[in-house]
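Human: If only I could read backbone structure tokens as easily as an amino acid sequence. Take your time, and here it is.
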Amino acid sequence: MTGDWPSRRLRCTVGSIMRTSSRGTMSAVSDPFERFAAECELRVSVEAISLAPRDVLASPVDADEYFLVTLTGARAEAGSIHLLIVIPPTDKRAAPTARDALWWLAADAWAIERAEGDMKRWASTYDYPVESAATARVFERQVRQTSTLRALLCGSQYQQLLELYEGQVSASGKSRR
């Protein structure tokens, strides 16, 4: 194989609230999470990654796609958040979007906030075994992620994201997408 073509690396940055179509026309971003990312000047980079170990005999047509999504804000000192997003072969999307990352980050933060940072309350939300070391690891990871999200968004933006998530969940009548 010569060079990096086709590249397995996809990079995108969410910028303005207007989007340019393939025809060169401008249109407003209608998804509320995409609009939120643009308004908060969040940068979302998406990189397709390989999984190891993997079933090398399975057809790529039937394989999930894995993406490392990194969310950064306007302030470098706030850090960044990394997510691994899996897209099943039945999904028509070529890659995750800012909406996907923000939806899951907001969902995790919302659960931590509703539990008031208490692991037992948080675990009961999902019926996770409280005494499990795995539950404790996931909880601590979610607490750190929530803290970083709060630092990235600063001020009222963090609360706005949680309200946006809660509004979406309430409208759909579901607690998880």
In short: The two ends are 39 Å apart (CA to CA). Residues 18-172 form one domain. Strands lie at 18-20, 26-28, 43-49, 65-72, 80-87. DSSP finds five helices and five strands in the chain.
